[in-house]
Amino acid sequence: MPNSSSLLLLLSGNLFLQAALALSLTLLLHFLNIPAFFLSGLFTYVHPDDVTPTNPSNGVKAAIRRPGTNGSELIKPRKKSKERFEFDENKAQIFRLKLSDGHLQTRIYFQDFRSAFNSIIVSLSCLLLHRFLTKNEKFGMLKNGSFIPILLGLLSVGRVFVLILRISFERSASKLSEKHLSVVLGFLGFVVALGFVHGVVPKWILDVHFEAVHGFEKLFIAVFMGCISCFLYMPAVRIAHAFWLGTDQLRCNLPIISCGWFARLLLHANYMFMVLTSMLWVKPLADLLLIDQNKASNTRIEHVRELVGNVGMQKSEFSRFRLLCLLVSGLLQIVSLRANVQMYLNEAVLCWYQRLHASKVPDLGYSRAKVFLHNHFVCLVVLQFVLPASMVLLFLGLSQLGDDLLTNFQGICSLFPCSLLDKEVALFMAWWVLFVWTIYTSATLALFRQGILYVS
């Protein structure tokens, strides 16, 4: 049996392990440059400039005089016959090149993507290590080593939130109408969030519990949920565009635009897991998957089992199943990053192809600008794909730290609402990010299917 001094030494070793892991990973990721590995080898496109424009600039034109006349008498312009437009095939060219580390260094927001990616990896690694370390809830978070994953997790969530706020209002990265619509959706999300935190939404609709949140913390959570609803609209629309092109819903059969079978499998699996995980917090579906303890409703359960079989799970099993689905859904979004980014770049090629064949004399000015912007903002779009999935994983990791870690630490509780680290609240935040992301993506795909929206 170990004595008390050796036990304290073992417990204080958790803090040392957490600090060693955080420092070593920070140094290692600084030299490895893993974010560039995610994007290296993707195909980007360059449209050549129009060096011989057909329409000259509307500047001051020189006056033409007849020989032997004074300067006041100017020649009258002759009526020109209808010009024959001959399209220069050189203007229809588009060049494809592979992204390399040198190309990525020149892209806007690449350094932000690299630093955010490294900090998220360090935070998730510390949260994962805390999950498997030996802990004693009677000792404080310093001896248990939970101070480092809590601090890094909160800092990473704050950094992701600020970064997604910056890229949401980047000029020329999205249409002004999309920004206005995202603000409207954010306000609607704030109103819905107020209904959640104040118990207005009936319990038979969503399996949500906010008993540990009081007063100002409810308003803080509602505002945070509203901001998430605002900032996730444009990333979800881009995900829907990538899914629509990657799965060849246009039936254009263009090899340069479509992707391989494995990338299509990832896109389908990502979307299916998003929908499945979002529905697990809906109470009617959850009741079908749980074993009903109320004997008065056993007749209904027997009818359900006759249709779908014995799918009942215990409450603890169902909770672990929801956590696993959240984890898989977040990881699938990270794994399918390359496929989504490639489809984003291929969208510019589709625009160029449509403009090239839209008329006998095509105007490629719009497609030239589209190709340039997609090439210029590629790292901004990468952040839009990565940050929501990172928020899901970070909130999921914070929900597994354990209960009552900060209740006795009054210094932090006076600066930060400690109940926000409650297990149910953090888990609900992870689900809310995924739920809003799924709603926006599904709505955009439905509008694509109905022909109201289209990719151009």
From TrEMBL:
Membrane topology annotation: Multi-pass membrane protein
Broad class of the protein's primary localization: membrane
Transmembrane segments: 116-134, 146-169, 181-199, 219-240, 261-282, 321-339, 377-398, 425-448
Alphabetized InterPro entries for the sequence: Transmembrane_161A/B
Superkingdom of source: Eukaryota
Signal peptide residues on this chain, from the entry's feature table: none
Keywords: Glycoprotein, Membrane, Transmembrane, Transmembrane helix
Gene Ontology, cellular component aspect: membrane
Family: Belongs to the TMEM161 family.
Name the record gives this protein: Transmembrane protein
